[in-house]
Amino acid sequence: MNATTMSTRQQVPRGDKASHTSGDKIVQRCFLMNLDQRPDRLREWMEQLPQPWPLPEPERFAAIDGRRVPPPAHWRAGNGAWGCYRSHFLILEKCLSEGIDSYVVFEDDAGFGDQFGNRLHQFVEELPDDWGMAYLGGQHLYSVSHPPVKISEHVYLPYNVNRTHAFMVRGRTAMSALYRHLHTRDWKKANHIDHHLGRMIQRRYFGIARRNLGKGAVAVYAPDRWMVGQLPTRSNISGRRWSETRFFNDAVNVDHNDEPFFAVLGPHRSGTSCVAMIMHHLGVHMGNQLGGFEATGGGEAVGLIELCEKAMKFPATDPTIGDAELTQLLKKFIVGKKSEAVRDESVAGGKYPHLCRFADQVYAAIGDSLRIIAVDRPIEASIRSLQTRSHKNRGQWYAAGDRACERLQRSLLHHREKFIASHPNVLVHRINFASLTSDPRAEIVRLVKFLGIEPEQDELEAAIAHVNPKLRKHG
């Protein structure tokens, strides 16, 4: 494969205040993966390079086009992912065969953050002596249950890093281990190269002490905050286009504390399903698989239903598991939804009546990133509606006697209002269900402002069309 050297880029002067280390002392070579048919991506990448450039002169590496080079029969991740994998593999193979002992590779959608040179040198100076691979950009996966471990102020030990738009590799031992790992056939179904690399990182995570790496292991590290994101260009693999350079969850912010979570709170049969589905139509990430009891959709993530029912089986009014366990379960679910929402350039939300009772635990899990959408409907109407549903579904797990229904409904409303009153710092948006059904457009426009999103016109119209004015007959 041909590797064409780009026009000369300015290196960091040895006397520059930003660093005392020249680029070739960080790594020997710098590669940019770029498809021959994407000169636009090459031009955009070159135009946004930080100056002075702290790394060796970038060399364009003609990337493999998975549409022209067909994948083998066992490959299940798509042509674009095949081309990405083969391109990274061939760069590594080139370095091994030519005696190149270290390199950095960028994909042509890599965008640089502020003070890239300064931050890169700061990161490199703190890297442990054993480092074999260092991500400059990416996305931390499974970070709630396995958060990155702090090694120094600017260096973390990751559990699993997704995305391959910017990373460094160093040392023959590490490069050989990486080569063998990429050459194995034990790839999971539909995995991309970043997923396969993530499995390699996971195997080392629990052996945090670097002296216990074991044979064939690669010491992998990540910065406290990503210094390379992804440019607003259309992905060659997913086809998505973003509006600005995207930086994913940093090691110091793996919980996505700076991303909001919109909890739709209200007793059963109070209009919360209608509001949740409105949010779904507006593009809010309410879950990957939605369920519920409404014919038009309940807007409830199946995973959230299972979590809540495990903690407090309908029609109980108090959880049967401890606060610490419940908080951890909620945190894992919510942070996962936030991560998916960030990936899809959206915001996350969730709805299930039990969340009224679990508001304190939700707040303990995600703090001030909690946003509440309180749906108001006369409690007597909600009680009657739940009782009616129970009468129609006798014997089902979601049916209860009249007294149990009333006790549950009043308990949920009480806990919601108690939480709101005791947490004035939490932002609350109230929706009167009667007003929503009588003038859905006005109420939905208000909701959109609270969500801070800009839905497409067809999304807005779909949200409005979801509201059934006949629902007003229930009170």
Automatic annotation (TrEMBL):
InterPro entries for the chain: Glyco_trans_25, P-loop_NTPase
Molecular function per GO: transferase activity
Key word Cell wall biogenesis/degradation present: no
Origin superkingdom: Bacteria
SUPFAM superfamilies, sorted: P-loop containing nucleoside triphosphate hydrolases (SSF52540)
Span of domain Glycosyl transferase family: 79-139
Chain positions covered by the region annotation Disordered: 1-21
The entry's keywords: Transferase
Skewed-composition ranges (Polar residues): 1-11
Keyword Transferase among record annotations: yes
Name of the molecule in the record: Glycosyltransferase family 25 (LPS biosynthesis protein)
Organism per entry: Allorhodopirellula solitaria
